[in-house]
Amino acid sequence: MQFAKLHGAGNDYIYVNGFERDVPDPSRLAVRISDRHFGVGSDGLILALGPRDGGDVRMRMFNADGSEAEMCGNGVRCLARFAVERGLATGDTVRVETVAGLREVTLERDSAGRIVRGSVGMGRPVLSPPEIPVAVEGDRAVDVPIDVAGQSLRMTCVSMGNPHAVFYVASAAEWPLETLGPAIEHHALFPQRVNVHAVEVVSPDEVTVRTWERGSGSTLACGTGACAVCVAGVLAGRTGRRLRVHMPGGDLDVSWPDDAAEVRLAGPVEEAFTGTWPEESGSG
After folding, report:
1. Considering the domain 2-122+268-281, what is its CATH architecture?
2. Of 27, 155, 219, 273, which shows the fewest CB atoms inside 10 Å?
């Protein structure tokens, strides 16, 4: 089975051309191929499939633990590059069907004509607790308490097609993400689990973030998470509507013009390598 590995700011996925071949058990394949010791190594698996509802390509995304996710901001930008470079879509604007809805990706090229960056409209944030979902009272989950691992913390929750919990901390580097991340991900307040972000505010338009991604663990970047951090910053009065988000794998740029607007995400799209996954290793 032919595959390509692409990443956006270090948030890496394995891509398979589903126009050409069927993957009967993508959850199983995601677990095996994502393993960083016995597989290729990635944060998950993304299938490029034939469109069904007006898009150029359809995305199915599976985390490293095999669970299917609704949306990925880095993954969808990289999928657009994957599709264009393999003739699955034409032009530098690609309409991608996702579980969270249709997303339009605009690709950017360098002086040599190589695709190096992409921006995408990520839709409007979902702020109602039952729709995020998070089991707290009120019409928004802004600066609400959570008790976890013997600590009393406060968080702001947002859905960008998938659920996020944002925690403002003195130092993102020193916050115990590897301990608190999984405990919060599986906390009873989150019926569909949650992505966890430790956010250190540098200035009103700049933050440093570390992420524990639902189903994948500690990741170098998270596109939907960067969007959620921008929205949470506005709601909590911590940051402005345009934000440079520093993540361990690189920088992402996010804007949320007003409460009625969609969030827009921009960042790098890079192809690391291509390869062949042996059929006997469990491609489906």
Report:
1. Roll (3.10)
2. 273
Q: Are 116 and 110 in contact (CB under 8 A)?
A: yes
Active site residues: 72, 222
Residue the block writes with tokens 């009120």 = 138
Q: What is the pLDDT of residues 180-221, one digit of tens each?
A: 999 999 999 999 999 999 999 999 999 999 999 999 999 999
Q: What is the pTM of this model?
A: 0.91
Query: Quick check: 276 and 14 in contact, CB under 8 A?
Result: no
- Give the separation between CA 171 and CA 168, rounded to whole angstroms: 9
Range(s) of the chain covered by CATH 3.10.310.10: 2-122+268-281, 129-261
Which DSSP string do the residues of 55-70 spell out, in sequence order?
-SEEEEEEETTS-EES
Q: Which CATH class is domain 129-261?
A: alpha beta
